[in-house]
Design a protein that fits this description.
The structure is a homodimer.
Chain A: H1 2-13, H2 17-24, H3 28-36, H4 43-53, H5 57-61, E1 71-72, E2 79-82, E3 85-86, H6 89-108
Antiparallel strand pairs in A: 2-3
Helix pairs in contact in A: 2-3
Chain A binds a DNA duplex through α3.
DNA sequence: AAAATTGTTCGCGTTTCGCGTACATCCATT
DNA sequence: AATGGATGTACGCGAAACGCGAACAATTTT
C-alpha cells in the first residue's frame, strides 16, 4: 500500500529517488526499497515522508483514500502557509476574489 | 512518541494490555513493548491501532501534535475547493503568484 | 558518443521484531 | 491474612527485516 502511494506521489512531483533520499538522509537504495515494497520505512520515515509530500500518514498507510480532506477555502478554518509565511484571513479573501474573477474570465472565452 | 500516545489512550479507555493484544492478534509482551518504547509496531499494526482507538495514524505517530495541520500551499498535494469547485493545480500556481505579487506590493508601502 | 543522472536489484552485516517465559504487583474473594 | 487470577514489566532467543554500498540497466543531458 505505502509503496504504491509513495511511487504515485513522487511521480506526480517529478522528484528523483536521490532527491527524496537526500531529504530524509537515507540511501537511495533504501528509499527505492520503500517504493518497490522490498522494505518498509520506519515510523519516523513515514512521518517525514508525509511532511515532504504534503500529505498525511493516514494516506501513506492507506488508512484513508484521501490525500487530504477536501477543504472549502471560503470556510477556511485551517492553517496555511506560502513561502513559509502564514496566509492571513485577509489574504484568503483576496485569493478567493482573484480566483472567482479569473474563473469568470475563463468562462467567457 | 507513539509509545506515549498508546499508553495515554489505553489508560483513558481503561483497557488491559491483554485486551489490545487479543484484538491485534499479537502477544501481550509484544504490545507491552510498544508502550514501553522497547519495540516499534509495524506499519500495519499502527493502522490497526488507530482504528481500534478511534483515532488517526497521524495522531499516534505524532505527526499532528499541533491542533491544526499547517499546509504549505507551494507544496500542496491536497484537495481544496472554492464555491464547491475543485481548485486545480494550475489555479494554485496562479494563486501563489498572485499572493507573492500582492505581498511584494504591501512591503513597499 | 560520452558522461551524467536515474532507477533496480542483491548480498552482507546489523538491528530489531515477536514470542515465550519468568516474575512482581494489584485486587477480589474467602 | 491467604489464595488465586488477572495485570504489568523485563529479558533471552531465533527469525525477520532493516539500511547500506555496489553493480548494473535505462534514461537523459551534454
Amino acid at each position: 500500500m505505502i509503496s504504491k502511494r509513495l511511487s504515485e506521489l513522487r511521480k506526480k512531483k517529478q522528484w528523483s529517488l536521490q532527491y527524496i533520499a537526500d531529504q530524509l538522509n537515507i540511501a537511495k537504495s533504501t528509499y527505492a526499497g520503500y517504493e518497490s515494497g522490498y522494505r518498509q520505512p520506519s515510523l519516523e520515515a513515514v512521518k517525514e515522508l508525509a511532511i515532504l509530500f504534503g500529505t498525511t500518514t493516514d494516506y501513506l498507510l492507506g488508512a484513508t483514500d484521501e490525500e487530504q480532506p477536501t477543504i472549502e477555502l471560503t470556510n477556511a478554518a485551517f492553517h496555511m502557509t506560502v513561502d513559509g509565511e502564514t496566509v492571513t484571513e485577509d489574504e484568503i479573501v483576496w485569493l478567493i476574489a482573484f480566483l472567482r474573477a479569473k474563473r469568470d474570465i475563463e468562462k467567457k472565452k
